[in-house]
């Protein structure tokens, strides 16, 4: 049996219709968040290191608009050590302003610069375990008004305290 080819025609040119391929869709801004916690099991009084990564996984720069904001509110009993954070960037440079004030005890980092495709920023900071026999869940969220794919804008990691 012969395969049929469909054509889209507008006189005088005709072109075969190709199946839609999402990879060929228009480029967009897509900030994604990744997070690690080390160690994943801790003792009372122990320091836990968090690494949060923001990556522009889209094919278009994330224009600043109202800015790009990373927020990480600590879990009760797992207060952040309010120094740093350390920031390492690849695929471009942005000036990040970070504070521990809004909301109280939370890490909030903001940039008003565009984040190019494949741009990545890695934030490192720590927390001290203040309660025992509990599991803490720590979550980071990134916001940019131009981010068209928000399903990957937050990430959480749990720390089990013995």
What does this structure look like?
The protein has 162 residues and is mostly beta strands. The protein has one domain (29-161): Immunoglobulin-like (Sandwich), CATH 2.60.40.1530. It is 0% helix and 49% strand. It contains no helices and twelve strands. It has strands at residues 7-10, 13-16, 31-38, 41-42, 47-56, 68-73, 80-90, 97-99, 107-111, 120-128, 134-143, 154-161. Strands 4-12-11-6-9-8 form a six-stranded mixed sheet, with no helix packed on it. Strands 3-5-10-7 form a four-stranded antiparallel sheet, with no helix packed on it. A hairpin with a 7-residue loop joins strand 8 (97-99) and strand 9 (107-111). The radius of gyration is 22 Å and the shape is elongated. The N and C termini lie far apart (67 Å).
